[in-house]
Predict the structure.
Amino acid sequence: MPRAFVLGGYGLIGAECCRALACAGFDVTAVGRSRAAAAQSGLAVDWLYRDLVQTDAATWRADLAGADVVVNAAGALQDGPRDDLDGVHDRALAALIDALDGSATRVVQISAAGVSPDAPTEFFRSKARGDARLMASALDWVILRPTLVLAPAAYGGTALLRAQAATPLVHLQVFPDAPVQTVALSDLAQAVVTAARGGIPRRRVYDLTEAGSRSFAATTTRMRAWLGLPDWRLSLTLPRPLPRLTGRIADGLGRLGWRSPLRTNALVSLQAGITGDPSAWETAGGAPCRALDETLSAMPATPQDRWFARMYLLLPLAIGVLALFWTASGLIALAQPQRSADVLILRGTAPGLAMAIALAGGVADVALGLAILWRRWARAAALGMIAVAGSYLFGSLAFTPDLWLDPMGPMVKVLPTLPLALIVASLIEPR
């Protein structure tokens, strides 16, 4: 049985490649750095835990001894606390090439349509450097460059595409004339199997894409019809400065660990268009990739898809509201702690204890409000908000029950934060 290793095995593309290779008779080992993400992938394959950027050639040489195929499905969109574009796309590949030097192992590199040394984003430039390094080697390699990948699951740009298609009433158009081509994830995975089996000429670069293209506006309209939603009533093209501003904000959030598809690299890539030429792949004997309508017909939308599309943009809104509410509440309490303490003192609490409770509550509120903005701590912060809000509510029942009858409803207004925090904690998934 031929052995295949898939780098980035729990990613959207990597996981599908693992499944397709296993179904094709390969003994598959998936490679990733996170045990938690591997456990959530549901893949029935062996796992090798490695940080691609930190793994040297000697380690790879031992790990990959006897491998018939190595599929590189690892990638990152933009530099951040957890992502190093040059490290993932170039330096890691250099170590891999060094490790496989002199072997008969075939390398199937999953790159991206549009990469070039002078591309407008570091994502494409770093991908191009890695591709060039592989092409200059003596290894047995195939490079596949897919366009926009569509799958039953959604992540990154495809998730954003669904979210934009689900916006209510108004079609908010961003770069509406940008040309877009797509490829079904299953077609990409089968192309990997074909390359791994040696079914196409080696040491060549192939674009994987449908034959035709359409504008981004037409693509989102088609996605809306796929979701089963009614036509928009209005259409509004956003001015160019707004997407640029959004990209910079998303870049800033990227420093806090959020991998937003609205980051500058993604928006610049979309503005330039996402296109490829399938002729080399088809001439080499590869199966033609399905058109967008065929792809969508093969994965009919469900209520879960509509829920996801609607909630995708509501999740960051919910996080922002919680961050603002808790931070502002804490700062107000810390700015005038005596007023907060007086509420307890008037009801029989000792002054020292009342002040301590007021200050501790203010600090806790600010800490939770800021922590939820950091991707690593967001879920824990949401659960902390539930715990703290619950303690406020139960504490008020025990010590200040009259506040529940206050005309301004200070305690009643805390109640909506509980389900909102619970929703955020439930929707945040580790990656």
